[in-house]
Structure formats: C-alpha cells, structure tokens
Design a protein that fits this description.
Blueprint: E1 3-6, H1 12-19, E2 23-26, H2 34-41, E3 46-49, H3 56-60, E4 67-70, H4 80-86, E5 89-91, H5 98-113, H6 116-124, E6 145-149, H7 153-161, E7 168-172, H8 179-185, E8 187-189, H9 192-198, E9 201-204, H10 218-223, E10 229-232, H11 241-249, E11 255-258, E12 277-279, H12 288-305
Parallel strand pairs: 1-2, 1-3, 3-4, 4-5, 6-7, 6-9, 7-8, 9-10, 10-11, 11-12
Helix pairs in contact: 5-7
C-alpha cells in the first residue's frame, strides 16, 4: 500500500477516505518544522499540505514522493522549479472557495470603510457615553468606485457583488479579461496607477509571485485618495506591511482590512498599534462547507495522482501537468 503524509489537522472523515487507498501518516499537532516535514516525507509516495514549504531539499530527501497536494489555491509555498526538475506533481484547490472568499473580502472591506472594529473596541472599553454627530465617520460603499487588482475567479466574484451596491468597477490585471466578462461585470480595465488614483476601495486578489512582491508600497499609497481603503485577501508580501502602517498612521489612506501578512502567522507588530486597520487570521475561506470542499478536493487530487480511485491518473487540479506520467528524477 502506498504511503502518504497529511501534514496538517483536517476533517477526520477526509482521513477515512484517504485510508481506503493509502497508509496514512496524519500529523495532528502544530505546524511541522521543515526538518520534521523532511523526515516524515522520506518514505512517502504523496503528501497533503496546507501552506507547508516544499522545496528542492525536501524533495531530494524524499525519493519516492510523486505528488504534493496543497489544500489552498495559492502555491507559493511550493518551489515549482524544483518540482519540475524532480518530476513531482503539485496540485491545488481552486474554484471551491471563490464565493466564500469574495463574501469575506466584502465583509473586510465594509468593516474597514465603516470603522466597525475600531468602534467596537471603543465601545467595549466603556467609552460610549453619548451619541456624537461626527463619531467614527467612515466612507460609503454604495455608489463608490471599487478597484480590483487581480481579476481572476475571486476578483470576478467580488466585482459581481458590486452591482447590488451601484458601484463603478475598475480593475487591473496582468492581462485584460474577455470583453463579455467586462460587459457582464460592467468593469473597466485600468492601469494600476489610474486605478489607485480613482478607486475609493482597493481590493487585492492577485497571486503571490516574485514579480508581485510589494505590489502595494509607499509609492502606491501616495497615489491613493486619503479617503480610500485597502483590503488584502490575496497573500502576504503583496503589500509592504511597514509602508502600510505608515500610510495608516499618517492618514495617507483612511483604513485597511487585512487577512494575510508578510511572514504569517507572525505579523508586523506595528499593525497592532494603528486603530484604522481590521485584522483577521487568514480566514477568508473559513466556512465549514468551503473548507470541507477544499479538503475533499485536495484528497481527490492526491488519490488520482497516485493512480487510485475513479479519476486514476487524472487529478482534477494539476499545477504542473507536464510531469504527469514521467518517472521521478
């Protein structure tokens, strides 16, 4: 029987599914160190991860490893050059979290714009004594301009929701989306600079790559409206968190909502000192239905990639499909 490692705690019923096909080593504690991950992968044919870093050294120490299934859309935790060189397949879990993540992006954007977290902390501290006409004045969502950077599936889901708020939608993407999608979303393509100048609410939904590192930093904050908000539901590292702290502290922008951070689960401690930011711990996809769908899709990818189950040899979501069928090198 082939051996796999499940490197994170996940739903027990998904583990039972995997046990129908594999000898399962299930790690249920804290995040594995790279050394421990390397040790436990040494005799494995496959692995299910959730953001665990897998690079050349890890792959070299696991000569039987043929597939690593990531329970996430993003896979910047994988060194794909090393995966390709070793003929190891990587898979991910797109689509099943689009709507939940878009919902959460809206929740975070609205909480930042309307100063919900800031006012709640003030109330809990016992400071609410009377109604104040200018207390916690925020910025409107309805009738404003939404700027989406990254118009993939989640970006499009965000833009679709803007119709109900009578918003103008502008977007920036690596490449322009099809005209019929623009028409459906009533979305206008804009340069990054133009979007930053015009948008009342900027939402980031682009993948993390070396090229996208610090897509938003001091120069970009200087181009935004003082009344604008920034929401990041993409990946940490896309925003220069230190520059964001300064922009919030000096009111260069009005507010921000963050679900992801540079170096998470660690975060820049200065973010905790500015009141005009809403902070959540990477939970944009965290509904039970969505997380179950992600776990089951990660299992489907792993089962199929290792030649088991009804889709044997045809995993639903290969990242580097060119290695399928090639011998491990």
């Amino acid at each position: 029987m082939q051996k796999i490692l499940v490197a994170r705690p996940i739903f027990p019923d998904v583990i039972e599914r995997l046990k129908q096909y594999f000898d399962v080593d299930w790690h249920q504690g804290d995040v594995l160190s790279v050394d421990e991950l390397t040790r436990r992968l040494a005799d494995k044919d496959g692995a299910l991860t959730a953001g665990d870093p897998v690079g050349a050294a890890v792959l070299a120490a696991a000569p039987r490893l043929r597939v690593v299934s990531n329970m996430a859309v993003g896979y910047n935790n994988f060194d794909m050059a090393a995966f390709n060189a070793a003929n190891v397949l990587g898979t991910n879990t797109p689509d099943v979290l689009n709507e939940s993540t878009a919902d959460f992006g809206w929740a975070l954007m609205m909480a930042a714009a309307r100063r919900i977290a800031e006012s709640e902390h003030w109330l809990r501290a016992g400071q609410w004594q009377k109604w104040i006409y200018d207390g916690f004045l925020g910025t409107d969502i309805y009738g404003s301009t939404l700027g989406v950077i990254g118009m993939g599936r989640i970006g499009q889901a965000l833009a679709r929701r803007a119709k109900g708020f009578n918003m103008q939608v502008i977007y920036h993407n690596r490449s322009r989306v099809a005209p019929e999608i623009e028409a459906e979303l009533n979305a206008e393509y804009a340069s990054k600079q133009d979007l930053l100048k015009r948008a009342d609410h900027v939402v980031l939904v682009l993948p993390y790559t070396k090229e996208n590192h610090h897509t938003i930093g001091a120069a970009e904050f200087a181009q935004m409206k003082p009344s604008a908000t920034l929401t990041n539901i993409a990946r940490g590292g896309i925003v220069d968190d230190a520059a964001l702290v300064e922009a919030l502290r000096t009111k260069q922008i009005a507010a921000a909502g963050l679900d992801v951070y540079e170096g998470e689960p660690n975060l820049n401690p200065d973010l905790l000192t500015v009141p005009n930011v809403v902070l959540t711990p990477h939970i944009a996809s965290a509904t039970e239905a969505t997380r179950r769908a992600m776990a089951n899709l990660a299992a489907d990818n792993l089962i199929a990639a290792l030649g088991e189950g009804p889709r044997a040899g045809r995993p639903p979501n290969p990242i580097n499909p060119d290695v399928i069928g090639k011998a491990r090198s």
